């Protein structure tokens, strides 16, 4: 059994210690947001946040995650009460097929938690590891900028939730 | 599995009441109102029967239009479509159309997507046809349903229909009478008849169509909802993985299954000829078992692939059957000719999420959930592969990652169906690995094009001679032989042999006939009859390469004629709508004839009307080139689009913008690599695509309003112009053209340094 | 080079030299010229200059992130302050547009600019002095035919007295011997060509030779290993830590493609060196390989057989991962899961590094890794933290970084396990604080990615233009 903290909740999961976090999130905890894209750390579809850093969950075995705080898109808000990042992606309609989007949001979340006023150039450089095939990039950048603005005006509540 | 609880609606009836109104009637005359008569979309209809080949669009396959609309006693309406959501936002747009004509609030509608039990058979979701085909059908069905409801209200209120109108799901009378749609369908049988002409809402009265609307699928996708087939986890589900051969012609010699069968969680190892798969309780267990199985397998391999170092030569050496696309040669007084040859390597779809299929065999019925673009063709092919009657396979569309054409979706569905036979009663999900998606999806064919123009003394084009060498861009099912696992089974199904067909919409020859008004022209497709590499449809089929070639060459000719490229195009165009998008894009960009770009910068322009039948699109684009390294930086792009009547402008803009970025990636970076035996582009490090830092500063899209005109498919319209504009801008920057795709850093550097 | 090590004892210099050296140190200006027209240069000369500039790696220091090529502005952090690379485009105001060929030649030979000011040896004229007039002419032709970019070089941020350039004359007196390369008659022409390029334009010693307190290369420890931009530059002499001894052939392959099957891929500041090398004349790269291999010398029988053993052990991994079949990875290695480092290695590293997929796209078996055999864990820490980022639009190895996934302690445990398991070298001390130091950015680690196809530098995501 391995103990994990995901979106503020503790879980005990019964899987091999070499299991990549991605499969624990998706299959054990039934969380949909983190996606399988390459399993090689090349595309970013599986990106989650661990202790404030962006991590490829597909190449991160759970054996290293004891005591760490893992955040997924499910931890940013709900469909009823979307968080600023989610709200911004909806408002900008920043998706085509949308498959890469949760990974994009988590990587962006890491940047905006450090600097919600990140510039266009900083956003692009930061988002470099994540791939989109539909060509939604321009809207993704716009959504991240919007999310930054929303975060700057967001309530303390939201800040806590996305912590 | 919400949709499985919906009662069977496949009965063909005109209209029936007592609790629900189901639209199902022939509307042949009505549809003629708004559907212009495009040719066949070859991908859409070749695989399904055409009981009414004389009719336009989806009517070919569904002349009786069963079950497009159902109105419940609650007043809620359900719309049925055979077109799949692929990330193009079709669900939302179709509901907008239905809401507009039914006069029901958007929120009061829901949509049932492709399902061989529930939805009409609309063939494939391909060729930018969804709005043209399904949208048109739904629009008419909705308009007629609304009028039938008004008629029923008129009967009840004893008022002439002219005094009634529908609004927000209610029929309103002149004295404030109100009858909700639910009320109207709930009591007793309604008798109504479809009219030969639908009373369509005039564009000036639109409240829903033409208005940007947020897509219904995005909130779920950004909050962790179960949005994709990959997110399906029915109870008792097993995880399946396939071990593919190491190369296209490889066959399995031997494999020791014993070590794998005893691995933790492994439920079953399946071998059928060269098809090798494993089923396990947990996903990571399935992956580990797959890797162990891969290491245990012995294959015989064969060098079957062409020589990549001279791919154009290899392609042109393949036996070809010639298809004449257009032959309108007239005597012209040519003073000079100019010619050029363009080449393109094989390219991949590269979906970010590798293909996935889910199948469940219960009581002889195999239900397959799939992100295919065509549930009906897959049903037929999978049934054939399994050797069962077609009724014993049901295919249901569930969204996957964007596919951009025929990717691994159909094969993954077949993989799942085949593995599910080994474990009746348990749902089986097969997820392809990244390397499998890269190496085994059907690629977009390599192409060579050769163009020769006869010019007058002012450099105007009098005669146009164009040849293209390409395989068919369509190997969709088809028969079971189109499915990868069926090709690998012991009782192997041979791949379908594609046939040369020259159709108005085109295939490899799509957009090979320029829209420009040249007096004399001859276009021929050297249809390569053997495919050394498995190929099929990628967004735009041949249109990308043909538009690339035509539009690059138009720039070359403009330079020779000492003309401005925009002016040169306009002087060869007669179609006013074409001229309008060209002028608008130039205006947005700030294009000025003869204007010099800053040192190292270049401006490029390109135009096409997709398939010469669908949306018009022009792109102006600025790049910067560093000659020392050949690095190309996209600076900005402006694009004008005419998509006829536009349902969701936000969706069209999203598609056009995305198309330009995707085409820029194809143009600058992409080419499949292989040795004589194996595909070597197997991941993102060996097949790079565009990343964030390479984006331009802005891509502006302007949609020219054309209210009251037919829908023109827009989903693929910017691929050709987008790619060609990048190339023309590079050429403008460095003063030399690169004729071979992709325009890599090395090629651009060599051209910039005049080493070519 | 970017980390300026020559300033260590700069204060002492003042004492040693004093004002009296002014006369010695004085250099006059060379008259400015009208910028020569591009057409005035022979294209063949320009092309030869391009090849030489690639070997000199000029564009890498003289181009800032997001800046125009050769237009300078790249900050070169030093312990005392920051020096900015100058604009060497032919812009007459802010570049070298008004430099005559003579002025350019003097800068290369003597480290003095057109106005007569001494240059900081961040510009490696201790090597460039060996370049012939002929080659300087070609380099000049190449640079003067670049796009002129108006870009003011920011003022250096150096305290007194290091900001007094006259001080540099003293440094030169102590450590700088001007003069063109002298061929060794006992060696072949190829060897001499290689030596000329490696010691001169290529300035290999700038990173691979250790420096003294005053930042000058220690002549007695030629190629004994140094450091660069937060990376350890391994010894290129007999002390080379590569587990499989280098040969002229393997070095040539590595230099011109950025990878070699039994040594892995170039990364960090070496990545652009190898990428640039592809632009150089093929014979020149081969000559450099020949020369460096001779500096390394024949490996001892013991070293050789150890190398062969490592290759043998690693080749057993090639038993069958066929990436098209079932992915590029293999089963996690069977290890003692009680050793936390081993557990991390098995789960996070072995699935690629033991998969048998060849470099550059597959992970190198760590038994073959110089980094695991090197004197410091700096390089493997950099790679584990930051990975190999994707090159822009070109084929190239990508390795994910584990900075967010692994803690300092976990990385230290992992490296201790790798060192113990895959090398015959003594354990590294104090890995964990070094990880923390690097993670905190104290080492100013330069991250570059490698393009294995493009063959052009810099294929570097950190150097892309993101401003318009």
Folded structure, characterized:
The complex is a heterotrimer of chains A (163), B (756) and C (468). In chain A, 38% of the residues lie in helices and 13% in strands. Chain A has helices spanning 21-28, 84-91, 101-114, 120-127, 137-153, 156-162; strands spanning 2-6, 9-13, 47-50, 53-56, 69-71. Chain A has a 5-stranded mixed sheet with strand order 2-1-5-3-4, sandwiched between helices. The mean pLDDT of chain A is 94. Chain B has 756 residues and is α+β, with helices and mostly antiparallel strands. In chain B, the strands form 6 sheets. A 7-stranded mixed sheet of chain B has the order 10-11-8-18-15-16-17, with helices on both faces. A 5-stranded mixed sheet of chain B has the order 13-21-20-19-14. In chain B, α17 (649-669) crosses α18. The N and C termini of chain B lie far apart (59 Å). Chain C has 468 residues and is mainly alpha-helical. Chain C is built from 20 helices and 6 strands. The two termini of chain C are 28 Å apart. The model of chain C is unreliable at 1-5 and 450-468 (pLDDT under 50). At the A-B interface, α1, α2, α3, α4 and α5 of A face α6, α8 and α17 of B.
TL;DR of this structure?
Chain A is α+β, with helices and mostly antiparallel strands and 163 residues long. Chain A has helices at residues 21-28, 84-91, 101-114, 120-127, 137-153, 156-162, and strands at 2-6, 9-13, 47-50, 53-56, 69-71.
Biggest interface, CB < 8 A: A-B, 58 and 62 residues
Residue-averaged pLDDT of chain C: 89
> If you compute it from the alpha carbons, what radius of gyration of chain A comes out, rounded to the nearest whole angstrom?
15 Å
Secondary structure: number of strands of chain C: 6
Number of helices of chain C: 20
In angstroms, what is the radius of gyration of chain C? 23 Å
CATH class of the largest domain in chain A: Mainly Alpha
Strand proportion of chain C, as a percent range, falls in under 5%
Terminal residue distance of chain A: 26 Å
CATH topology of the largest domain in chain A: DNA polymerase, domain 1
Number of domains of chain C: 3
* Count of structural domains of chain A: 2
Helix content of chain A: 25-40%
| Backbone structural class of chain A | alpha+beta
CATH superfamily of the largest domain in chain A: [2Fe-2S]-binding domain
What quaternary form is this?
heterotrimer
Enumerate the strands of the largest sheet of chain A in spatial order, edge to edge or round the barrel.
Answer: 2-1-5-3-4
Task: Say how many strands of chain A there are.
Answer: 5
